[in-house]
Amino acid sequence: MYTSKIAAFALLVQGMLAAPTTTPTFKNHxxxxxxxxxxxEHKGTVTQVTDQSYxxxxxxxxxxxxxxxxxxxxxxxVYKKDVYKVGDDGFYGFAFRLDPKWDITHxxxxxxxxxxxxxxxxxxxxxxxxxxxxxxIWVEKDQLYIRSKGGNMCKSTLKKFKIGTVKPGExxxxxxxxxxxxxxxxxxxxxxxGNQAVEESNIITTYHDNSKKYGFQFRTGLYANGWHDxxxxxxxxxxxxxxxxxxxxxxxxDDVVPSQK
Length: 261
Known about the structure:
- 10% of the residues lie in helices and 46% in strands.
- By secondary structure, it is mainly beta.
- The strands form 2 sheets. Strands 1, 3, 4, 6, 11, 12, 13 and 15 form an 8-stranded antiparallel beta sheet that branches. It has a 7-stranded antiparallel beta sheet with strand order 2-5-14-7-8-9-10.
- It is globular and about 45 Å long.
């Protein structure tokens, strides 16, 4: 009896050691406080407001303004550091709302969430780029997309998946489940407004990092990357505005779904 109990305990410990690591738990109810940082570039702003929210009583409003004489980037985001390293599993959720007057007739990209790390000093980064994103979620016209990207930092593997249709002026919620792997054993599952929209197995979701040294940030807000990458603003809407609320990082769907009570 005693020997069998020891054997059972040993198996339990083995299972615990073999279990995948998980991301830290984080919750934010639409406030500026609690983040590791706020990033607003050029004329962009990030403010806490009370006139719009997914749940009472606050949300975070992000604004970016196009400037034809400016060549830098257009981030207006909040971020949390070290939400994952290669090999981790996690769930991530947030609610967002595009401005009711958001122009959906032009196809430039507006990023609303991303995972990113400064990988310049990584020995696997032979091209010596600095801030490299893995997963990104963005809006093109009235469609929401997500990408997986990883493997070799300089010759990465990228896949793009459509999530669903976005309606300006309405709140939407996104939940993302990820197995962060630098080989083809990664996994994405996305729920959009409570419905499963994407499920992809055997994909590469992050970059090689044998040392498991580099933690990735989770950023959400507005990054008008199309303005920078295309070196122009398509159309006449030079100001873009969105709100985010109920942002969470956890170990299960119920940890992070914005509609949770």
